[in-house]
Write a structure and sequence with these properties.
single chain, 101 residues, mainly alpha, 4 helices, flat
Length: 101
């Protein structure tokens, strides 16, 4: 994030021409910064990544059952399979379990 902020400030100092400015560019930069931070955080903390994947897979079935978002039964099954495998990984490797304080 610091590198992105530094690069953005450098670009702003170097470009004095407001013709190329767009609000969409600003929104895209914010989204790119957020996704980069998310990717780096999940990469550095594998237990957090595993828990996030498991939670994402677990939410598919309730969304389908409540009619909020319809999924193919194969997607529901795949989500259950991935969630179960993630649960087995946390049992087999206790260091992969997300620690809470």
């Amino acid at each position: 994030m610091e590198q992105v902020t530094h690069d953005r400030a450098k670009r702003e100092r170097s470009s004095q021409d407001p013709v190329g400015y767009s609000v969409a560019d600003e929104e895209t930069e914010w989204l790119q910064s957020f996704l980069l931070l998310l990717f780096r955080s999940l990469k550095r903390h594998p237990p957090l990544f595993l828990d996030t994947v498991k939670n994402f897979c677990d939410i598919l079935n309730p969304l389908d059952q409540l009619g909020i978002w319809k999924f193919n039964p194969g997607i529901i099954g795949l989500g259950g399979l991935v969630s179960s495998i993630a649960g087995m990984i946390t049992v087999a490797y206790p260091q992969m379990k997300l620690k809470t304080r």
